[in-house]
């Protein structure tokens, strides 16, 4: 199982956020997030939003640190990218 996380550089709701993704499947991503204790409401289209204070927890649990550009590249190559504004089936 390999999941990836980008640096917490995305502002929102008074915090900085990271994106947690899988390049294999959403099932893999959901399992990792559940084991980490991330609430399902943090899932948005193709990633989990992870607050900066949980970044180190995700890395300790096995998430591989990558750049934000790498997150997009990995999702696109895996066919798992779900851009905003497009209707998606689950």
UniProtKB/TrEMBL annotation:
It comes from Streptomyces montanus. This is DUF4031 domain-containing protein. It holds the Pfam family DUF4031. Residues 3-77 form the DUF4031 domain.
């Amino acid at each position: 199982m390999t999941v990836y996380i980008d640096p917490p550089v995305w502002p929102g709701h008074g915090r900085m956020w990271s994106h947690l993704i899988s390049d294999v499947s959403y099932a893999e991503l959901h399992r990792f997030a559940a084991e980490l204790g991330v609430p399902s409401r943090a899932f948005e289209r193709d990633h989990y939003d992870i607050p900066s204070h949980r970044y180190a927890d995700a890395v300790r649990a096995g998430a591989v640190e990558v750049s934000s550009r790498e997150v997009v590249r990995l999702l696109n190559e895996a066919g798992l990218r779900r851009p905003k504004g497009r209707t998606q089936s689950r």
